[in-house]
Write the structure tokens for this entry.
Amino acid sequence: MLAGAALAIFCSALEVRAPVIDLRWFNLTTSKLAAVLFFALVIVWVLGQGAAGLRSFFSYRVLDAAVLAFVLSNLISVEAATDKAGAFKFALRMFYAAGMYLGISRLPRFFRSHLVVAWSVTVTVLMVVLVGLLQNYVIPVTWDWLLEPFEEGITTFGAFYNLRVASTLPFPTVLSMYLELCMPIALALGLWLISSETRPGRRRWLWAATIAGTVAIMMVQLFTYTRSGLVAAPASLLIGAALAALFGFGRRVWAMFALAALILGAILGGWVLFSNKMDVRLGLSQPENRYGAQYQLLDIPQDMQPDQEYVARIHVKNTGSLYWGASGDNEVNASCRWVSYPDGQEQTDVPFIISYLPHDIGPGQEGDIDVTFHTPATPGRYVLDFDLIEVHVAWFSSAGVPGLKVPLDFTSGTGRQFQITGPATRFDAPAPDETATPRSQLWRAALRMWKDHPILGIGPDQFRNHYTDYLNVTPDNRIRTHDIFLETLANTGVIGLVVMVYLLGTAAWAQLRLVRDRKLGWDMRLLSLGLLVGLTAYVGHGLLDCFLWQTGVSFLFFGLLGLTSWLDYERRRRG
């Protein structure tokens, strides 16, 4: 049963991308499958305990009513949705998350289950951090197969790079929130291990490991470039330090929480001094000339045939600040695009081939690249556009660096060069739309949506499908309100908002009660402090973003609510 809980926590963060079962109204991913397995193990254990197990399972916990009301409010609001299939999928995801709550809140008490959960969260977040650091600093091209099943395949454009780890945590703000929830739990577990160790040598090692783990989590937190997280994380840690000092946790505890906030601030300050990316993200400076290239065509086959593979040689010079890596960090590949002439339509049916750089090319350096390409199968006039691409980030031409264009005429059966008339820039890769709808407009749209659907809202997770009914902007079904309360109000109405406030308020009061109770065991109090700090970060960051639509965050959030319920039940049971 405890192993099932650990597996569910791990799979919720590192989930295989492809669903195991995928139907119109129902799908099972690895995280949901792990949650179902965990809950099944809970039922088996309860039945194995007989009448005593059943009494314990059905005995009331502090958050039971709030979680049940939350699930029911989403299910009821499905009726108001025009896309009932999508709304029901979201409500079903909340049902799985509630299963995580129910299972963890009913874990057996005689195995120190709270420490098993804390260890599982800590090991999982360290694995997430390790994967993130490997993806961005260490892992070579030959290891791509290791992470490919977990990668979402989302491409990020812009002047800064957003870290994504797995299919469950594919967006930087989601990863940031996941770290904000996990970090206080890992910190609390480290402090408990330190206090439990009597040998000075091992205690020093535990201090070093706790600080090193905190620094690693902070590094990945900063590498998400999530501005709201950079405010919520240190603020919640400082609140944790104040609570630790107020309720007698001791100097080492409150100092460690304060030190964690200072570490984050120090790393951020260093990042600002030495990285233009963070400056740009914080609005302190303009982006540097990251991408820059000059091209020269050295050799290309003559009289090429349609639907064949050829190799051309081009000479390139790095005129930007980005270091072009042949593999590993800042990997840059060469490739090409076929665009029809003169309308400029990209030919997506032509096989896409990557060519690797023969060696690293630093700023100001030059080199020759052999670029393999496949010709179009359909006769016509085309522009062959040789271009460079920073792996998982952007085409150079989409960032304003024109590629090397070779016009080829296949109307007579063989490719012959011709002269382009008019501006050649129309054949560049289209620049991504980096203009984001301001939060203030989304918030006003959410309020107007609620006024039109005051009781049940427009349906769970439906704001993203209908906000363009209230705003004259380009539709993007990834856009949400960027506020957990307004998202709830628009989607599930005033009933859902009341339930959400009741859930968060009940959890915060239960955690504060646990933190204040000096009769509790030291391990239980420390974990309760970590839970309260994580909830504070969730609410603070949630004022500027939404998270429960993501499996990794929703499963972890409700799992930590289950741990809160388990601890409170133990507090009441012990009198």
Remarks:
- The CA atoms of residues 95 and 116 lie 23 Å apart.
- The chain has 17 helices and eleven strands.
- The first helix runs from residue 2 to 13.
- The two ends are 27 Å apart (CA to CA).
